[in-house]
Amino acid sequence: MNLRHLLLAPWLGLSVSAPAQYNSPESVEHDPVGDRYFVSNLGDGTIKQRDQAGVVTPFASVSPDPYGLEILGDTLYACSGGRVKGYRLTDGTQVFDLNTGGGFLNGITTDGHYLYVTDFSGQKVFRVEPSTASFITWVASTGGTPNGIVYEPVNDVLLVAYWGPGAIVRGYDRSTASITGSVSTDVGSIDGITIECHGLVVISSWSPNRISRFEWGILSPLFEDLMVPNLNQPADIDFDTVHDRICIPSGGNDQVILFDLADCATAVHGTPVSEGFSVSLTADGRSLWFQGLPTDVTTYRVLDTTGRLLGVGRPQASVALPAGTGVIIVQVDGLGARRLVVP
């Protein structure tokens, strides 16, 4: 299903932070529980936090300078040189430090269990197991310079954005790390990548300075320029599923831009992988209603659009819905996924 007809002429809002608050911001990560934004800064080796009132305060100091940021559980993880470091969300205390031996770790994402980290200079992707402080080389050669990375839960793939002219986005199967597809974009030097409320892929590029979005999984996707103003070297972006906004570090002018997508109210179900089952909300909106599931199905998972795990269990006719509103992805092992809008 092509979602482009849903996205014509969206009404958009824009919030720009005061320039003096940041020093070469590189990555933004939204914390949906604390409803705040973490920002890594290359100019002074810090991670700062911004609340919804716009107040910016220190969170942690990181050396070497922090690049990509990702929340998993109660920890904020940061790429730092060849290491992945973790900081407790409650107070910024460092609680994790893993040396991957990589040359320049840049982008980071999670599937709700593992962390996946791009090595910009080594042209690799590492898979990190935080609970055991271990890692494997998940992709030994990316065949180009990998920068941003994001988990796309509907197709169960990791999408890697590439740096350089004629930049591509390449998909890797989460289970096997095999290439599932590759898309040539109309931009150069993609830095960041995320998934927005419709399940569309959003990329930030330096050539030109642009935020674009497109649909993954179709033969010839169209690329929409979201016309975000004030961009200067937009880096590692994130999508705030609470407020439906793209979070953009604009490193060249020391700004963080929060770009609202008001058309998120039109988000609909994605194309199902299997027609054999359905998932819907019960009348009271508090539970998920499964229909048409085989008796041997063992596991379902509920994720937000960034791939963050919200709940897991064994499917029954009706199961309690995790707290929260917005777009969720319901995966059923071996059958596929459904996208729902929780009012």
Task: Please provide a brief summary of the model.
With 343 residues, this protein is mainly beta.
Main features:
Methylamine Dehydrogenase, Chain H; 4-stranded antiparallel beta sheet; 0% helix; 343 residues; globular; disordered N terminus; Immunoglobulin-like; 2 domains; mainly beta; 52% strand
Describe how the helices and strands are arranged:
Elements: E1 12-16, E2 25-31, E3 36-41, E4 46-50, E5 56-61, E6 66-72, E7 75-80, E8 83-88, E9 94-99, E10 105-110, E11 115-119, E12 124-129, E13 134-139, E14 145-152, E15 157-163, E16 168-173, E17 179-184, E18 188-195, E19 201-207, E20 209-214, E21 224-225, E22 238-240, E23 245-250, E24 255-261, E25 278-281, E26 287-291, E27 300-304, E28 309-313, E29 318-320, E30 326-332, E31 336-342
Antiparallel strand pairs: 1-24, 2-3, 3-4, 4-5, 6-7, 7-8, 8-9, 10-11, 11-12, 12-13, 14-15, 15-16, 16-17, 18-19, 19-20, 20-21, 22-23, 23-24, 25-26, 26-29, 27-28, 27-30, 30-31
What do these coordinates show?
- The protein is mainly beta.
- It has no helices and 31 strands.
- A 4-stranded antiparallel beta sheet has the order 1-24-23-22, with no helix packed on it. A 4-stranded antiparallel beta sheet has the order 2-3-4-5, with no helix packed on it. Strands 6-7-8-9 form a 4-stranded antiparallel beta sheet, with no helix packed on it.
